Amino acid sequence: MLLEIRDIHVHYGKIAALKGITASVDQGEIVTLIGANGAGKTTTLKTVSGLRSLSAGGIVFDGRDISKMPGHKRVLAGIGQAPEGRGIFPGMTVEENLLMGAYARKDDSSKELAEAYELFPRLAERKSQMGGTMSGGEQQMLAIGRALMARPKVLLLDEPSMGLAPMLVQQIFTIIQEINRRGTTVLLVEQNAQQALQIAHRAYVLETGRVVKTAPAAELLDDPEVRAAYLGGGAAQGTAAPGASPGASRDGGPEAAPDTTASDSGPERGPEGGASK
Predict the structure, then answer these.
(1) How many angstroms from the chain centroid is the CA of residue 265?
(2) Measuring CA to CA, which of 107, 130, 201, 277 is 20 to 30 A from 215?
């Protein structure tokens, strides 16, 4: 198993954000985490990448316990992340943003740069353009390309379709499948549960900091409870549907609702502009 999340607990002050999450991602898989706002999805990714500290439990990556490993060393170990809100550097060019993804590497990154431009031709066309002047879809491509520059064994993707037009959403999910086809394992957090389950191999359903269901993604697409709660079939009793207002977070935790008012028609917010969960 490439990534093992073992009964992890995470707190924001006195608030329990994760209450014993256990999950795994095997080499070559796309695994998705779905759930309502406040369920703990983004906190799980941040904990795997080292941005949040564990209160209890452990994380094993590629056979090594990384529970106490600093975040920058996890990047070198093979964990890459494209964060919610994209987090691009608005005052840097596209190419400079991409090269920042390889900052910690000591070897030549020209091969990865060429591959990023092959995967995202739009970035190649605009390599000298400032990141902050690009549209939301272009910034999402840039965030993913930057993460790939570190040659990750597993790519953590947090809400890659947020605020994008439907045509661009489909394009982003097609690119995720291509990245996986080329050999990169993917752990995906996505409010668009329908799209996520269509491309994933397996899925975990999170509620209030716990895993409440796990199965092959195709099975969850046909699960009546999952369809009712997350796939537009009407809210199941006691389960908040995706897109609920920020105050509807059931655990009262810090995971905020995504900004669904964003469009792909203009520049996105800067690195600190994305909502955190």
Answers:
(1) 22
(2) 277
pLDDT per residue as tens digits for the range 237-267: 333 333 333 333 333 344 443 333 334 434 4
Place of tokens 């995967």: 119
d(CA 259, CA 98): 25
Q: Does residue 174 sit within a domain? A: yes
CATH number of the CATH domain containing 203:
3.40.50.300
Tell me the C-alpha distance between 266 and 246, whole Å.
24
Query: Is the pLDDT reported for residue 99 higher than 70?
Result: yes
- Cα–Cα distance measured from residue 176 to residue 148, given in angstroms and rounded to the nearest whole number: 11
Query: How many residues belong to the chain?
Result: 277
Whole domain around residue 123: which residue ranges?
Answer: 3-248
Q: What is the pLDDT of residues 16-42, one digit of tens each?
A: 999 999 999 999 999 999 999 899 999
Q: What's the CA gap between 248 and 37, in Å, rounded?
A: 8
Domain annotation covers residue 259: no
Q: What pLDDT digit, counting tens, does each position of 190-206 carry?
A: 989 999 999 999 999 99
Whether 203 is covered by a domain: the verdict is yes
Q: Which residue has the tokens 């409440």?
A: 212
User: How far is the C-alpha of 113 from the C-alpha of 99, rounded, in Å?
Assistant: 8
**SS3 helix, strand, coil % of the chain, rounded to 5?**
35, 25, 45
Examine residue 204 and state whether it is found in any structural domain, yes or no: yes
